[in-house]
Every structure is written in structure tokens, then in C-alpha cells.
Amino acid sequence: MPAHEAESDTTTTEPPDLPGSPDPLTRERAHLAASRSALRAMREDVQALDIRDVTANWVNSVVLQAQMDDRIKALADLSHTPLFFGRLDYLHRVGADEAEGAEGEQFYIGRRHVHDAHGDPMVIDWRAPVSQPFYRASRKDPQDVGRRRRFGYTSGELTAYEDEHLTDPAEAAQTSKLLQAEIERPRVGPMRDIVATIQPEQDEIVRSGLGGTVCVQGGPGTGKTAVGLHRVAYLLYAHRDRLARTGTLVIGPNRSFLHYIEQVLPALGELEVKQATVDDLVTAHVEVRGTDEAAAAVVKGDARMAEVLRRAIRSHVTPPTEPVMVVRGSRRWRVPVYELEEIVDELLARDIRYGAAHEALPQRIAHCVLTRMEEAGEAPDDRVQNAVARTPAVKAAVKASWPAVDPARLVLRLLSDPEFLAAHADGLLTEDERKTILWSRPPRSAKSAKWSLADAVLIDEARDLVARTHSLGHVVIDEAQDLSPMQYRAVGRRCSTGSATVLGDLAQGTTPWSTESWEQALFHLGKADALVEELTAGFRVPREVIAYASRLLPSIAPGLAPVESVRESPGSMAVREVADPAGLDAAVLAACAESLAHEGSIGLIAADARIPALAAALEAAGHVCLSPGEETTAESRLTLVPASLAKGLEYDYVVLDDPAAVVDGEPDERTGLRRLYVALTRAVSGLIVLHSAPLPEALA
């Protein structure tokens, strides 16, 4: 399928032209111009709407105006984002019986829908059912598509096209050059959408239904992050009303990563998806000022802590020992102890949230009083029941049997009081594990405590035991392999009535508590029935680079299938030993200069401890470095990346400083080798590895 450019003879791929008619490329450019004009008209129509006479009050007016503002933003014509990237020529009219011989239709496939003044489509949204064959049609299954056309752009200008005749047996199957060029385009700026390059196996995941949770295991360069983001965009298209009510959330490993991906969904016209880290979720109600040793963090992150917390909260429930005497006017109404015990036992047996039971208990006691009133011939109503529930006698009974619990104070007591922890961790945590998480110098109060992130997760769990956490309609969790069981629970309760897209790579688990299997992770997430998909085809990391990094897999993820890269890029990597350790900084500077001679972004990745020295060396050499997640530009293309923040990011060219230091910077060898695997696989065009210390044995 040859790619046709402006100076090429393109008449072979179109029906015969009439004398003097424009060539196909000119016609496609004309359609692009007309589509841009139509989009501009759509935006102007919304801007011209006058809502003053169609809203009942100022609240409706504000809501409607906000919706209109979002619509105006969604209709923006981004100069760097082509309106359409493909075209489908159907053999028959869509939906018509092929036997009817109906004339075929032609659809342009783009990032958003565009229609003309008559409402006829000029560009079809890539998420629409009629667009699906663009990603899935093949010679074996053409899906009634006679021709699939791809377009090539340079700086927003349509410069080439490429045709694939799916029903022509005489045309040999070839790799799309335009598709390959789009995949390999330099990575300057934030992460881009992959809507023009989605592969069939990726499209199946993207278009999965809202009702089920999908877990995607994908090695470096397989596009799992992009697949997850595009699935959100698809679900918002297919289930907009439902998700508008329930909400969607993308969870990333850190702020740098979220900044890197934040432009993908807006480029697809989706502006309402919120982004956060797990830390953001659990620190909304507690200030984090402390850190944990790895051993303590592992125990605090263990799922057994959920049962410890549940026991600790339930321990506040005390069987009633005295009857309740309620005075109403000249009458006294008595609720005996045995009835109070029955109410408390019933609430315990129902296993509802502790706070909900705390609210229900006074109403249940008041109901008993109202029953006696009715038996005595009175006719009390709901107002009387509420008044009885607020009487001092009932309040005292509730406080004695089912007192209110403050989640932070509960966790503080567990981590400060050895006897309290031992009582509720009996049979769950060993004595050594209990000692590991106990504070050596307990704080005086929850406010003065220097909570760690692991503590914040425990408090979040305790808050959910007291009052149910609000659930969203759909949550995407990226780099999910790094979450602890308790963190999975924190995310899971935020989609307990919704669904999730779980993205990750077991080989890139770089926390001491990272998951060993997706089955375990999904169980803790509360989505044990999720569908697990594996992406093994790599589209960005060169074959040489991924093969070199895959040497680590037997040590870090035995049994995990290595990524099979489709990109052949001979000479894309080099491993250079620096004999004199004192010359390592100079060698790094030279490698950065060598990489900067190429087009695209450059990432200098090093062990966290090496960052200050390298930053000073780069500054002395006149290099201005970006921080991870900052947007690269044509003028600023070099980013200095601590190995701990490299996950999820990608650069055209990577210089990796001293692999042994990356490994030694982690608490154990397996985690260090996994961190190294991440660092090695950030390059999408070329990799230079520099070392003065011997390479790790698993790599060498």
C-alpha cells in the first residue's frame, strides 16, 4: 500500500477523474478545510445561544452555562491535532442488506464528530460503531469495507495518504508506512493520543463494556496506558449520561506521570475526567508528615490490617446493662435491657457500617417507646419518634452501647497501645509484626501525629468502616502493580458500585509490597471476576532495547512473557564502560550531547542519589534540564529523571547512568532490578547505557 504524497501520482487509487478535476490529495485537503469550517460553525452556534429565557432560575442558568462552556471547549479546533486521520469506503450502505445492492458510503474517521449546516456528518467520531472497522477490518474479515485510507500530516497539514483495498485479492498485504511513521514520531511534548494507531487487540480492550472490570498486563511499549485512557474516552461516549452522574477518575503513580498524560483526554474532547494519585485519595482528611521503614509499610499495607481495624471498631460496641427510661410529660416509658440487647445484636448481625448503626440505634430505641405509646392508646407520629431519639436517656444509652468512633484516633490507639493492638491482631499479626508497626514514641493526639502514607491508608479504611465511601462509575488505575493490598482496597471502595480498568506490568513492580499476581490484586480490589488481558506486542521500544532489558525477566518476573517489539531499529542501543569512575560525569555529558543531535526528547535517567551531582555537571556545561513530567519543547528537550520517577514516562533517546547504582538504591535486589528494568525501557528510539561499576549479574 504505497503512501501518496503531494508530488506523487495518486490517480491510481481513486475512480477516474474528469478532465481538469483536482487530484485526490487536493480533494482530501478540501474536505479537511471544509470540516474545519464546519467545526468552527458548530462552535459559533453554541457561543451564540441565548439562555436567558430558557432557564427557570439562576441555579439552572449557572449549570446550563457551565455545560455550554464545556461544549465550547470540546469543539475547539486544535491546530496540532488533525480533524480526521482515516477514511472508510464501505461497499454497501451501512445497515442495508448486501443483497439489496445499495450503493456504498464513505466516512472520514476522526477524534470528534463534525457535521455540516444540514446535519450531515463530515467527520465521524472514532468511537462510533461505524468507525470500528477502521481498527478491526482485515483481508480475512473486511467487514464490508472496500478501502481503508490513512492520512499523513506534517505540522497539521495533510501531506500524504495511503490506501488498503481489503477486498482486492491482487493487492499484496504490506505494513502501513504512515501507521509506522505515526507510531515512531518523536516524543516532544506531553503524551499524545494513539487514536490513529490503535491495533485490533487494543481496540477490543478499548471497546469493552462498562459493566465489567478489565485488567491489562502489558510490558513496556505495548500502549497499555494509552489503551486505558482511550477506554475512558470510549465509555464516556457510549455511556455519557450514566458516567456524568457517577463520575470517572484516572489514578496514576505520581504527579509527574499525571502531568505527562493530562492532555490525552482533552485532545479527544473529554474534559470532565478527574486525575489523582492514590496518595491524593487517602490524604484528603489527614496530613502526611512522616515516613515508614519498608518493613513497617509492608505490614501496614497487608490486607490483614483490614480485619484488625474491623475488630478494633467493633470492640467499641458494649452490651446494654441498664434499661432506658424516657419521660414524656407526666408519663414514663421503659425499654428493658433484653430489648436493648436484641436491638444491638441485630445491628451487629446485619454488619452494616458502624456509623450507620450508630445513627440507627436511637431511632430503634425510640420506636420501642412509640410502640408502648400506641399500646396505651396514644397516636404518636414521626416527629414524636425523632424527639424521643434525641432525649438525654436515649443519647446516654447509645453512648454507652454504641459510641461514636473517630477513625484517626482509632488508628492512633492501634499504633500506640501494644495491648490494644495485640487484642485485635490476635491470630492475624505475629508479635514481631506488631512491634514493627508500633510507634516507639507515641504522639499525644491524632492532630500532632506525624502520619505516614501507609497510616493514611489505614485511616481511610477506618473511615469506610464508619461511613461508606462514595463510589464512582469508572476508575482507571495505572501502574497498579505497585499498590499494596490496603491501597487496592482504598481504590476498590471508590468503584464498589462501578467498574475499573487496571493497567500494569508485574515486571515493573518497584515497591516492597508490589503484587505478585493480578489474581491477588483484583481480589483485594474487590473485582475478582475481572477479565485479564495481556498485551505482548510492543510498538514503541526498539527490538534491541527490549531484548536487552528482557534479560532481567527471569530474575524479576519468572514466567512472564517478554514483549515482542515490532520496531526494528539497528544500532538503537549502546552499552559503554567508563574505565575511570571519575570520568563518568563527563561521559554522561558527552552521551547527552550525542543524543541531542537527534530529533525528539532526551531523558537522562540515574539513581536518585546521583541526581544532585549530575544536575550540577549539566548546569556547568550550560544545559537547562527539565523535571520529570514537564513539557518538552523544541528548545528544551533534556529531562533529568530520578529512577524512582521514571515509570510511565518515555523519551525518544535515553541515557542511563550507572545501572548498578540504580539497583543499589533500592532496599532489596529484586526491587532494584525491577527499577532498572523500568529505566532501560523508557527509550522509544535509542538507548545509551554508561557504567563504571560492573553491570548487575542478571544483566551482564
From TrEMBL:
List GO molecular-function terms, semicolon-separated: 3'-5' DNA helicase activity; ATP binding; DNA binding; hydrolase activity
Residues annotated as domain UvrD-like helicase ATP-binding: 197-551
Query: Cross-referenced PROSITE patterns, in alphabetical order?
Result: UVRD_HELICASE_ATP_BIND
Q: Which GO terms describe its biological process?
A: recombinational repair
- Family annotation (Pfam families): UvrD_C_2
Source organism (scientific name): Streptomyces finlayi
PANTHER family xrefs: DNA 3'-5' HELICASE, UVRD / RECB / PCRA DNA HELICASE FAMILY MEMBER
Positions contributing to ATP binding:
218-225
The entry's keywords: ATP-binding, Helicase, Hydrolase, Nucleotide-binding
Keyword Nucleotide-binding attached: yes
The reply to whether Transmembrane helix figures as a keyword in the UniProt entry is no
* Entry protein name: AAA family ATPase
Q: Note the Gene3D superfamilies from the entry.
A: P-loop containing nucleotide triphosphate hydrolases
Annotated region Disordered: the residues are 1-26
**Gene Ontology, cellular component aspect:** cytosol
Q: Which SUPFAM superfamilies match?
A: P-loop containing nucleoside triphosphate hydrolases
